[in-house]
Every structure is written in structure tokens, then in C-alpha cells.
Design a protein that fits this description.
By secondary structure, this protein is an all-alpha fold. The protein has two domains: 2-43; 64-280, MetI-like fold (Orthogonal Bundle), CATH 1.10.3720.10. Helix content is 74%, strand content 0%. Helix 1 (2-43) crosses helix 14 (250-280), helix 4 packs across helix 13 and helix 9 packs antiparallel against helix 10 (189-200).
Amino acid sequence: MFALLENTHYQRGISIAARTVLWAFLLLGVFLTIFPFLWGGLLATHSRTSMFSSAFVLSFSDQLFVNYEELLRIMPFWLGMFNSFKVALIGTAVSLFCCSLVGYGLAVYKFRGRTTLFTIMVCSMMMPPILTLIPYYMIVSTLGLRDTHLAVWLPFVINPIGIFLMRQYTVASVPKDLLEAARLDGASAFRTFWSIALPLLRPGLATLAIVQFVFLWNNFLQPLVILTSTEQMVITQLLRRVQGIPNTPWGAVMLGTTVSILPLIAIYMVASKQMISGLTSGAVK
């Protein structure tokens, strides 16, 4: 009896120790993930002089409003934020519709060459984006879309990752019996997709919305090549542009960088709530 009790206490002690180590590693990972953002917020309250006077700044300062005024002086900050938001929002909305439509078609309809087409699309995901930069520039220039926001988001609304995600989610979440019942009731192909399948794809759409919005918001290379006028530049271009001026006001740059992250956090919180609600709701409902 005593040996059994000792063995039970020993196993419980090992379990508590393992759980403690696991939580320690998880908390360390969380800290390492959010620390750069917190540190950026701290540096946004410092001037250039105080920022470089110490090896490691871990305190707030009183230069926040001075940095804000300097930020507005060196760049049209809110215009760049508006341009980025417009590009990301329109591109994400169009991408959700197009990728879900193509993914639904690949998952539901059987036609000749479907497997080959899907294989080619998946293989294209392994191509580095930098290889398409020159053809991208040539096509945009030929179409007369240089220095326009349309050229920034339009080429990325139908992307292999989004199509693959929606195709796999359609296979896993949309019952074929439900689609057959809609067809028997006289629903057209598009009505079946729009009214029956699309509501069931909300979790996948929320995931794709997060991925696509973050990509379009953080996109830097394509806008750098296409957008030339200050009025059309997105926030990533403007923040990079001011880093080359003499005596760069790094406090203002860190403030702009910190503020530019907030829309990404907001869209993640909104889309993640939709994703969780979609996962927990009934399919037929």
C-alpha cells in the first residue's frame, strides 16, 4: 500500500514538473514574440538622442507628441495608411470571392484536366515570388497601370495558396448531399455556391482573410517597383523612404511603425472571432 502511494506521488510530481517546464517554454515563446512590438512602442516615446544614449531602452519617455509632429512633417503618414488600407481591403474582399469560387469549382465539379490543373497550381506555390517581378513589371507597364493601386492588389487576388485552402476546406466541410438537395430544389450553380456552400466556408474565409490582408498590407517589393508618386505610396514605402534622410528621426519612424501594426491586430481579432464562431456552429444551421 505504501509503495503504491509513493509511486502515485512520484508520478504526480513528475507530471507537475513536466507541466511547469511546458508552461515555462510557452511563456518564454510568448514573451519573445511580443517583446519586439512592446519595445517598438517604448522607442516611439523617445527622441533620437535618448534612444542612442543607452544600450537598451526599457522605459517610457515624454517625446511621444514631438515624434508625432515630426512623423507628420517627414511623410504624409495618414495618406499612406489610407492607401494601404484601401489596397488591403479591396484586394482581400475580391480575393475571398475569387479564391472561394475557384476552390469550390475544383472541389465539386469533375471535368477533364482537373487533377492536372490542380497539380500545376500547387507546384506554382514553390516558385519564389522574386522570379515573377520582371514579368509583373512588364505586364503592368504594358497595360498602363503603373503608379496605380489596381496594379498592387489585382495580380494577387487569385493566388494558389487561397485556392488550395478553399478547395481543401470545401472538400472537408461542404456535404455533397446538401448540394444535391439544392440542385433538386431548382437552385442554379451560382445560387448553390452563394447560398449553400459559401456560408459553410466562413472559417476558411476568415483564415484566408487574415493571410491575404496581412500579405497585402505588408507587401513592399511590388509597390516599390510600381508606385512612384508620393500620393499613391503605401505605408511600407513611406516608412522605408524616410530611413535614408540625414539624421533620421528614429523615434518618429518607430511611432509610425507601431501605429501601422494596429490594423493587422484588429483584422486578426475580428477574423479570428468569425473563424471560431464558424467552427462551433452547426453545418446545416
